[in-house]
Amino acid sequence: MTAQPEHGCCHGTTRTEAASAPVAPVKKNAASAGLKQKITALLRPIPGGIFNMGTNQPRYSADLDSPARHVRVSPFMLGATQITNEIFAGFVTESGYQTVAEREGWSFVFHMFAPDEGAGFAGPVDAPWWRAVPGACWRHPEGPESGLASREDHPVLHVSWEDAVAFCDFCGVRLPTEAEWEFAARGGLQNALFPWGDDPHPEGKHMHNIWQGRFPTENTGEDGFVGVASAQSFAPNGYGLYNMTGNVWDWCADWFGALPTATMPPITDPTGPSQGPGRVMRGGSHLCHASYCQRYFVHSRTHNTPDSSTGHIGFRVAAQTGGLE
Predict the structure, then answer these.
(1) Pick from 70, 68, 135: which is nearest to 104 by CA?
(2) Which DSSP string do the residues of 227-271 spell out, in sequence order?
(3) Strand 106-110 versus strand 130-134 pairing type
(4) Count of beta carbons in the 10 Å neighbourhood of residue 299
(5) Which stretch of DSSP H or E encloses residue 100?
(6) In sequence order, which ranges of 146-187 are alpha helices (DSSP H)?
(7) Are 127 and 111 in contact (CB under 8 A)?
(8) Residue 16: pLDDT band by 50, 70, 90 thresholds?
(9) E strands present in 68-105
């Protein structure tokens, strides 16, 4: 491709404004001790501190990720991985919750993974590689005939921001703020492009799951994967966090907007604007490629509407330093 549209591989994968039914509430902090124990085991301490948020070398002006500015983050805890299918299944069993995709009867699947490559399923005009597949949901990631066998340790997919918040409410955790997410993704490194440094292939090794080949028709799988990888694939960063770039996008708590204002002393624990075009997503996915959606850096950001779900968005949870509520 010769053009680089502003919103890359995620743009267009939104539900219509009138399509989504209200999300059924769940009981607050009602998860069993066993489910909470599994979530607690994921959490890693993040020390907090001052860091440069954003970049001075932006790739897409619409991402509003420049210039870099100093931000202070307080200590907190963050999931070493995204919430997995196994853990999400436990939440659904205990709460009876139904995701937006389940209630609406469809979700977006990338064309290469859709039934018969999505024949007969309409995709967004400006992102034609997506297919609105009937029956696709977290239980059936590629449609009704697919399942979760051998994927219990994979990140849960087809989960909207609203679904992620329902999980957090039930389990006594929360989504990370965008500032927390970026601080943690950097793993203690200042101004690096990736969680491990600036070299995309140190010693010739692939360090995260992104697209190799020609997007959107050929993925050579040189990094070992042509789709979503397990939640603990590749080496963790300096804080023990896996897949902070590539593999699956992470929902954050914040509305999308300009980065926090640069102040002196630096602003502490910013929470983003009061409204925006969508909720922030961070980290990129296995569909990111330099020719189109080059958003696999620790500063990369985009957004989607809170009721939207796709086969490449998940979430990880945060908590205060004392742990779950």
Answers:
(1) 135
(2) SPPPTT-S---TTS---SSSSSEEEEEEEP-SPPPP-SSPEES--
(3) antiparallel
(4) 25
(5) helix 100-104
(6) 161-171, 178-185
(7) no
(8) low
(9) 69-73, 76-79
Q: Which residue, among 92, 126, 132, has the nearest Cα to 111 in the 3D structure?
A: 132
Q: How far apart are CA 268 and CA 72, in angstroms?
A: 5
Distance (Å, rounded) from C-alpha 107 to C-alpha 142? Answer: 9
**Cβ count within 10 A of residue 319:** 22
Among the listed residues 194, 174, 177, the one whose alpha carbon sits nearest the alpha carbon of residue 185: 194
Antiparallel, parallel or unpaired: β 69-73 and 267-268: parallel
Summarize pLDDT for 58-78 with one digit per residue, the tens.
999 999 999 999 999 999 999
Per residue in 75-94, pLDDT tens?
999 999 999 999 999 999 99
* Model-wide pTM > 0.85: yes
Please give the DSSP secondary-structure letter assigned to residue 10. Answer: G
Cβ of 49: how many Cβ atoms within 10 Å?
A: 13
**Which of 44, 3, 38, 23 minimizes the C-alpha distance to 238?**
44
DSSP reduced 3-state for 59:
coil
Q: Where are the alpha helices (DSSP H) in 127-174?
A: 161-171
Six token digits for residue 13: 């994968």
Lookup: tokens for 25: 């509430």
CB atoms within 10 A of CB 153: 15
Q: Report angle CA 156, 36, 142 to the nearest 5 degrees.
A: 10
Residue 205 makes CB contacts below 8 A (sequence gap 6+) with none
Q: Which single residue is written with the structure tokens 């994968």?
A: 13
Contacts of 217 (CB under 8 A, 6+ apart): none
Query: What letter represents residue 66's amino acid?
Result: S
The amino acid at 142: E
User: How is residue 276 annotated by DSSP?
Assistant: -
Instruction: Return the percent helix, strand and coil in the chain, to nearest 5.
Output: 20, 20, 65
